[in-house]
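Key idea: predict the complex, not the pieces.
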Amino acid sequence: MRLSTNFTKTKKQVPADEQSKNAQLLIQAGFVHKEMAGVYSYLPLGLKVLNKIAQIVREEMDAVGGQEILMTALQVKERYEATGRWSDKVVDNWFKTKLANGTEVGLGFTHEENLTPIVKSYLNSYKDLPLAIYQIQTKFRNELRSKSGLMRGREFLMKDMYTYALTQEQHDEYYEKIAQAYRRVYDRLGIGERTFKTFASGGVFSKFSHEFQTVSDAGEDTIYLDKKRKLAINKEVFTDEIIHDLGLTKSELEEVKGIEVGNIFSLGTKFTKPFEVEVEDAEGGRVAPLMGCYGIGISRLMGTIAEVMSDEKGLIWPENIAPAKVYLVRLGEKNAKVADELYENLLQIGVEVIYDDRDARAGEKFADADLLGIPYRIVISDKTVEAGKHELKQRTEAQAQSLGLAEIVKTLAGDNKV
Amino acid sequence: MRLSTNFTKTKKQVPADEQSKNAQLLIQAGFVHKEMAGVYSYLPLGLKVLNKIAQIVREEMDAVGGQEILMTALQVKERYEATGRWSDKVVDNWFKTKLANGTEVGLGFTHEENLTPIVKSYLNSYKDLPLAIYQIQTKFRNELRSKSGLMRGREFLMKDMYTYALTQEQHDEYYEKIAQAYRRVYDRLGIGERTFKTFASGGVFSKFSHEFQTVSDAGEDTIYLDKKRKLAINKEVFTDEIIHDLGLTKSELEEVKGIEVGNIFSLGTKFTKPFEVEVEDAEGGRVAPLMGCYGIGISRLMGTIAEVMSDEKGLIWPENIAPAKVYLVRLGEKNAKVADELYENLLQIGVEVIYDDRDARAGEKFADADLLGIPYRIVISDKTVEAGKHELKQRTEAQAQSLGLAEIVKTLAGDNKV
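Result:
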C-alpha cells in the first residue's frame, strides 16, 4: 500500500482522554478511532491487524473440528427468561432495546441461549455428538467503566465456541483439545511465553474454569504464578486447599497482574436442560448433552498485544499479524524509480509492504515506521542509491544492514518463492 | 466438507412462519436460522455464501480505490442531533438503547455521521481528496414489518461506501466509477442480466439518486423498465417530465416489480457542513467536501439470489458464490475408497466439495444436492464403479454425463491446475 493513498495519518499528541497505553498507541498510529469509551472503529491498518488475529483464531478452531456460523446481536427475551439470565440483577451488563411493536430484545453478550435452540433443531441422535460450533461476532456488554482501551470493550469482536458432548469423557476430551488450540493461538500471536493457563472459579458443574492470562501490569486480574509449570491461580480461587490440590507450593508462587485473553468453561447441562435438548444414547436412554464454552476476545487480543509489545517509539507487531511486513522509506523524489521497482518486486512475491512515498522529511518517516510497528524497515536514499546498497533494519534492532536489492528481496521472501 | 460432520440437516417441511420464498428455501436447506422476523443467524453453508458475496463486493470496492474500515454499531446521539437525524420523527427505524450511566445511544442504520468526524480528523488539504472509504458491517433498522426474509432485515450485513470530493467534477467521476463497479458486482453474482440502474428520488443536492433493481415479483418496489437501454425509473419519480428528460418513451416502458440490491446517492455538503469539515483548495479558499454514499446489502443480495435463482427442487447458486462447486454422492459403503479418493483429488486442486458420505438413501441424497443448489453433482454407485464411469450432472441440466474419474477431475478443474 502506498502511504500517500492511505487516509489516516499518525498523530504526534497522545490522546488526552485515553489512560491505557494500548488505546493511546493505536489511536496515535491511526489504527483505531474512539467513538466512546470502550467503543472503537477500526481504520485500514487496524482492520488488517484485527482480521489477521481473527484468521489465526479461525484456523485453530477449524483445526479442532469447529464449524463456523454467525449468530445475531438481537436476542429474544424468552430464551434468557428460560435460563434466568434476562434480569438485570442476574446479568448486570445487558444492553436492551425494543422492536417497533414494543417487544423487548437484548443485544447479545454471549450466545449459549441463542445457539442451544439452533443445535436442538438439528440434533437427532448421540451419533451427532460431539459438536463444536463457533462464531467470530460483535458482542455488546454495558460496562459501567471502560478505561482499558481495547481490552475491555462495550462493543467488541469475540470468538465464542460452544461444544455439546454426550458424556463427561467426551466433554473432557474436547475441553482439553480446545485448551491446546488456545495455546497454539497465543504462540502464533507471539504472546505464548507470557500467557498462562490459570485456574479460576468454576460454577455448579465443575470445580474450576480456566482462563488464559497474559502477564502485564495493565491487567485487571491478580494471579499467582508458577512460572516453571506454566500454571497460575486466579486470586478469586486462591486458597490453601486449592494450592494443595494443584500440587503447588505457596512460597514459590509469584503475584502478578494478568490480562484475561481467553477462558474455557464447563457448563454441564445448565443450558441444555432449560431448552429440553435431549438425544437418545446407544442404550435407548434420553441424555441431555454437556456443554462447554470457550471465548477469545479478538479485539482484546489486539489491545493486549499493543500493550505488551511496544516501546517508547511505538508498536511492535509480530510478523504474522502486522499490517505489513515491510515499511519502505523512499527519501527523495528522484529515487522513485528504484523504490517503485523494489515495491513491485516485493508485492509480486507476496510480501506486504507499506510504501512511504510521501513528500515528507526523513525523521518523520522513520518515526512513523517505528510508531506503526512494522517488522522491517527499508531505506532508499541518495546515499544508498549511490552505494548500490540500501538499509534494511528490523523494528526490534538498533543497527541496519546494508544490502543490495536482490539480497533484500531474498531476506524478506521467507517461505515465499523469489 | 464431509456432510456427515456438518451439524445442519435439510428440512422436509416448509417453515410455517415464513411467507417469502428466499427464507423458506434457505431455512429448509439449513443455510440460515430465523431468530425473529428480519433477524437470521447464518449456519455453516449459509455463512460460506454470505462471505463469498462479501468478498466479491470487497474486491470491486478495492478495485476503485476504496479503503476498508470497520465502524461501530453503537452511535453517539450528539452526532445525529448535529444533522437532525436523532429524532424518531425524522428517522423512523432507529433502535436506541442506553449506556449504564444513562447516556442514550443508537444502533447504526447508516454511518455518514460516524465516518465524517473520522475523516475530518485526518483531512488536511485538497490533496487528500478524493477519498472512498467503505465497510462491510452489521446494520440495525427497526422495521415495523419484516416479511421478506433476508431481503428486508432488522439486523443485516451491508457494504456502505462513502466518498468525499473537492469538486462536483471529482464527485461525478467517482460516482460513475462506483456505478460501474456495482454493475461488475451484479454480473459476477449472476444477476447482471436482470438488474437495472434505476432513477429514484434525489434530495436537496441532486435531481436523482440511482438504485440497482433486480426484477422479481417478490420485489417491494415498482419500476418502469426500458429493457433495451438497461434503464428504469422508480415509481416514486415516474412523471412525464422525467420520462422526457431521460429521453425515454412512456409506451415502451414495462411496469415490473424490483428488489433494490444497491443504491448510490449524491449527498453534497449535507453531512460535511454540520461537522464543519473543510479543506483548503489550491487557491487558498476553504471548501466543504462533497459526499456520496453507496450501499449494497450483502445479506439482501443473498436473499435476492435465493429468490430469483431457484426452482421447485431448491436453490441454484452461481458457481462463484455456491457453498461448494461439487456435491459428491456416494452410494454404498463399499464404494468409499473410490469416492474418498476423488474427494481428496478434487480438494487438492482447489475444488470445493460437499461429500455426501452419509448413510442415507439415494433419493434423499439427490434431493439434498438439489435443495442445497450446488452447481455440479457427482454420483458414485455400484453401477458406476463397475462401469468405470461415474455420473456428472449440472444442477441446471436434466441429463448426467458418464465420465471416467480423470475426465471428471479435468472437467471440474476449470482454471485450477490439475
